[in-house]
Amino acid sequence: MSKNVPEGFYKGPQADEFAEVSEPFALFSEWFEDAKAHEPNDANAMSLATVDDDGLPNVRMVLCKDAGTQGFVFYTNLGSAKGQELASQAKAALCFHWKSLRRQVRVRGPVEAVGDDEADAYYATRSRGSQLGAWASKQSQPLESRFALEKRVAAVTARYPLGKVPRPEFWSGFRLNPLEIEFWHDRPFRLHERVQFTRSTTESDWKRCRLFP
Q1: Are 10 and 98 in contact (CB under 8 A)?
Q2: Residue 179 per-residue DSSP state
């Protein structure tokens, strides 16, 4: 490895060639698999940025539960801050940061609700505790004490002591179908690689552009 590359610097597949890739989803899939192999925790963690009715941004970490040519999927309580903001302003931005790989992917685009069948199928894969928690939590609303939350969990557990826990109507998912995806790869001396893919609509062809670091 070059003496200019810091010790521990990750140089994985397509570390040099990714800037020439013509289609972003295949590249994301490759980087995502690298992240799953190298990140110590939650390779699918991503920041999600939304805006409220006053245009004030909100950002938080969520987990990406599906990623492909149709977009990036995450789930939440529809009454939460992000759920309400997406209902009002159906657009968002995402950021994946894989520190161990020194890579970042930024995504922006319109957001739509997933179908009931898709939400039901994912909900069924969650642990029973997480299913019960979805019922118990009034996400983003004031909570008087931890004990109040535990009482709600106990009440839901008593309601569904055995068998299937149905998905709450107020809990579902969203899909961000990107208009922009940017790939960032660390380079020595802050001369990073940045490649941006853009398209005018979700049905348009992608255009690629290299960006100054």
Answers
A1: no
A2: S
pTM: 0.89
List per-residue pLDDT tens for the chain, 213 residues long.
Answer: 333 333 433 444 445 577 788 899 999 999 999 999 999 999 999 999 999 999 999 999 999 999 999 999 999 999 999 999 999 999 999 999 999 999 999 999 999 999 999 999 999 999 999 999 999 999 999 999 999 999 999 999 999 999 999 999 999 999 999 999 999 999 999 999 999 999 999 999 999 999 999
- Main-chain dihedrals φ then ψ at residue 84, nearest 5 degrees: -70, -40
86 class by beta-carbon count within 10 Å (0-12 exposed, 13-18 middle, 19+ buried) = buried
Residue spans of the domains in the chain: they are: 18-122+172-211
Query: Would you say 34 and 105 are in contact if contact means Cβ atoms under 8 Å apart?
Result: no
The answer to whether 178 and 110 have CB atoms below 8 angstroms apart is no
Q: What is the Cα gyration radius of the chain?
A: 20
What's the CA dihedral at 15, 49, 87, 107 to 10 degrees? Answer: -20
Distance CA 198, CA 182 (A): 9
- Going 50 to 54 to 55 to 58, the CA torsion angle's sign is negative
List the one residue out of 190, 197, 85 whose CA is nearest residue 206: 197
Give the fold, CATH level 3, of 18-122+172-211: Pnp Oxidase; Chain A (2.30.110)
